[in-house]
Amino acid sequence: MTVADRLLTVNQVAERLGTGLRFPRRLIEERRITFVKVGRHVRIPESAVEEYVSAHTVAPVVLRPASAYSYRRAA
Question: What CA–CA distances, in Å, run from 25 to 1, 41, 53, 70?
């Protein structure tokens, strides 16, 4: 987390991820995302949301083109 990093509320994180409120709250409860306690409030750094998304991004599978003789029989 950098000094200029913006702290987001749970509502803002849910909106950014396109999820309900329960999902970011569960991430916090299970300690799966970095968060900051500000008194009794919980805030999540913007960079932590970006890191979470990049860590859980799945690359697409590249399929090889089928050869002319690779016919599959139906079951």
Answer: 19, 12, 16, 49
Report pLDDT for 75.
61
User: Which pLDDT score, from 0 to 100, does residue 63 have?
Assistant: 84
Tokens of 27: 């991430």
Q: What is the dihedral of CA 20, 25, 27, 29, to 10 degrees?
A: -160
Neighbours of 58 (CB within 10 A): 5
pTM of the prediction? 0.75
The neighbour count for residue 13, using CB atoms within 10 Å, is 25
Supply 46's token pair: 């913007």
